[in-house]
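Quick look at the format.
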Amino acid sequence: MLSHARFSFFVLLGSGSLATLLITPFLSLDPINLPKMMVVVTGASLLLTYVAINFKELLRDQSVIFATSATFIVLLTIALLTNPAPWADQLWGTWGRSTGYLTYFAFILFMLSAAVLTRENETRTLQQLFERVSYLISGYALLQTLDLDPIAWSQKAMVATLGNINFMSSFLGLASISFLSRLVAETISITAKAHYTFLLALNLSLIWISGSIQGLAIFAAGATTLVALVLRKKTNFQRAIFWLLFTIPQGALVFLGTTGIGPLSSLRQDTVIFRRDYWLAGINMTNENRLNGVGIDAYGDYYQQYRDLAAVVRTGPQRVTNTAHNIFLDVSTGSGLLAGLSFLFIFVITFRVIFSMLKTGNFTSTDVAVAGIFIGFVIFCLISINQIGVGIWGFIFMGYLQGWNGRQKNSHSNRKLDQERSISKKFVPKPTLNVMPKMSTAIFGVLGLTLSLMPNITDVQMLSAVKSKNYDVMLEVVSKSSATQAHKDRYLNSMLEEGRETEAYEFALTVLQSNPRSDLALRVIGSHEGAPKNLRITSLEQLIKQDPNNLELSQNIRGLINSLGE
């Protein structure tokens, strides 16, 4: 009979793989993120019973990480219940991102499950599967590079199944760390060395061709960690620390150079400069909404209000974003400062595990690989968006590292058991694992699948209505509780394109009831000649408040308001 631990391990591996690979290009408006969100939420629901069963073990071996994770979820829940941001966008995440409450809850469950599961199961399997998934990403990216993509995407780009060049580059950067660990931390055959050298070269070439520096930055950080751990194994702790103290400042100088600061400012990258604008807006947003943030995944509704004049002038007011491009800031802006700090502390705890590895020298080659991947993931978190297909592996590997103490205890227990067997010359059976509690697992799994299916079905129906230009069905779809602000904006734009201003105005009024900050709804109401004058003026003034540094917008709106007052 399949044990609960073995079943949960399969769920962990399967969810990680599917979350990276699954896309629905012919069914959904968002064929990338919504299906991935469905996978992680359903998978985490199936793991919930396993986490509950191992509650005592988590308290015993991972008490700090468990308490920190529980605190983060509580603060996230408070933000969900108390913020005025649209409920659907907070629960499932903003359309095109899907990093809402359910996704972060799922990530935490994957991390805690991995912390326990990797004590009992073959840990190398996790690394092997991750590498095999990367084969498919590399292969698809190569097809796109050769213009052989079987899917007619709206844009031709090397994105694989991750939707963005930077995400593809980051994933290949993480996989490259794993391949490098095979070469520097393991004793393998010449054939195996050739195999991993080819894969490493292929990935780095694809990253270079893509033009995305994220993958290179991630790989460099991971490679630095690998070298430190290998030095510790072959020499001593002091040399490993010296290596880190030598390389980390250089990496910091290179990063500052890409932002146009310091002696290496010639490395300046416009995309990094833009991120400075996004980070500053996120810091301002967090500072003014410390208690519970502005709403989970609601950064985009507030970005224009908190960006500075330099961000507006740099490329024009039309450059906007719905994420801080820094996962820690995304959490703090959405859920408050305490939630952001508790989330950050989860990473700090994992850093402490790696330091313990360096200090003791007790680690395997798989530990080396995962430690390097985690450090690469930290770089990803600092400069990118929490893309689900990449993020799930980051949290799984974090859980793996947090289970290191448990694996050390298991190793000691197994050696003691072997000694007892050799003395008594009697076979001592290993403790049997719990039989899978089918009922509770099934209930939670169905609940997770149902919750995560709702926005996917809505998105599929919306695409069908848009293709057929059936505006009645479109209205039914956007009136559902699972419709996001992006779906409503799509409907409003369709009405305006068809010259149906009155219908657009009437729907905009309903939109403002659930999201008073909807930029498009405010514009529709402010420009509709049939709307009450006071309502138009109020809507136009709100637009200025939400984008105070957009001087061109303010000037145009002030002129319109003056004409209404005449």
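Next, a different chain entirely:
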Amino acid sequence: MPRTPVIALVVSLLLTWALAGCSGGGDSGGARPVSGLTTEDANAKKRDELKDGGTIRWAIDEFPRQWNLNHLDGATVAAATVTGALMPGAFGTDERAALTIADDYVTSAKVTASKPRQVITYRLNRKARWSDGKPITWRDYEVQWRALRSIDGDFLVADNTGYERVASVERGRDDYEVVVTFSRPFAEWQSLFNPLYPASTNSDPKSFNEDWAGKIPVSAGPFKIGKIDRSAQTITIVRDPNWWGDPPKLDSIVMRVLTTDAAIGAFVNGEVDVVDLGTEASAYERAKGAAGGAVRVAAGADFRHLTINATSDVMRDPGVRRAITLGINREAIAKADLAGLDWPVQTLGNHFFVNTQAGYRDNSGENGKYDPDAARDLLEQAGWKASGAEREKDGKTLSVRFLIPSGLTLSKQEADLTQAMLADIGVKVEIVSVPLDRFFDDYVLKGNFDIVPFSWFGTPFPISSAQSIYAKPTKDANGDLQIQQNFARIGSDEIDELMSRADATLDVDAARDLLNEADKLIWEEGHSLTLYQQPQFWGVNEKLANVGAYGLSGAAYEDIGFVK
């Protein structure tokens, strides 16, 4: 995946795991179905239903080399999993990705002015302290903004979205009030300061880049670092006795680095208590057989899709793009991808919101239907006439290249199904398999494909995370097309205007309406076919509560524990 989608996932994890400071009682109300999809499955229990003490073993997929998640090398899922129990943030999310204030760190955060400039005022929890004893104050916010406001400079910043719009961060009526003034409106201001790092390690490039390399010098969460053991490939976090919130139920959590296959084997053998199973049916079947284990399942934040390259020779014609989309049965692909998994098949009809997310509407309409007869008519109108089993125009056969990374069964299956479907309307599909390490850099980024499948990671902030995907490409001074992450290479001024208006409004409902209007236009452009919201499958010790498939909500690490 390109770097930015990985950052987007980490931001999402940080915001959901920031709920460690929001949940209080640890009772999330259990799994709630939305449109037939379970939003959360973590064996939710109240704190008084749990034992005090114990250690759990949690599998992660890599040993982070950088623990500053705002650093270019720190935006990894493994690092976010560990620091979710250690670092502060201002907001978390519920099961619909609606924002919730993290009151162990921030007692209030609201818009206090919108004209002439947008102003946000935070009131900080006076009890909140870094593990070195220093209070968390406005100064930590101000110094972090200065470090992250630009991606061009000596601070190796992973992402500066939102920070670049801040004009100032100032002290309010005391050290525990932060006044943030924007140079231009930013609807998703709650995405900032998640996570928050101390001023002492943000104040200069050397500290920002090096202080968190291989070590965690300070924290401010229910847990703190016990030991980082690179030889054993484990990171142990332990209760922080100075934590001011609800005390953790567990004594410690041991994060153990294992490959996916090894992690699943360790879970089946009772050697780890928590593991992300991915979405392979074989992994699901193995985990189901674990003695003393349970498989937790919920709708996740990321979604599967097919991107269409609108600048390729064949796909430049809107009629052909429309025919291709009508000739692909999205539900059939979803059924095949999810076969063997205990999960309902439901197609995704939106490019900004997943099915279980607040603001979701199915905008696919006629553009998301499977209608091979209409597809054939459109191809005829575009001049592609039937010639046996295929179609020709000006002596050329209608053929498209379906690009996949080698070795990935899911992508190959999607390519095979698309090949069979499009053959039915007279379109030849050439499946092009390329090495995984060259898939994006040498092919997707360069536009060397007609159709490509992969997953986008969703976040609680659909505007800022998706604008670069759907914004109309522009040419630079050299005439080169600047696509950002818009691999379809198509857009419109109308879509840009709607996204821009959504980005500038502080009315959440109005912003959602604007995004849904933009989504209708994206469907009409034939930009990409969204397939389905991907489920999360987690293997968890059956005696554990408040841990598992969180969906779009978050983990309160202090509330994880063994049921009495």
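The domain at 3-292+542-562 is CATH 3.40.190.10 (D-Maltodextrin-Binding Protein; domain 2).

See the schema section for token definitions.
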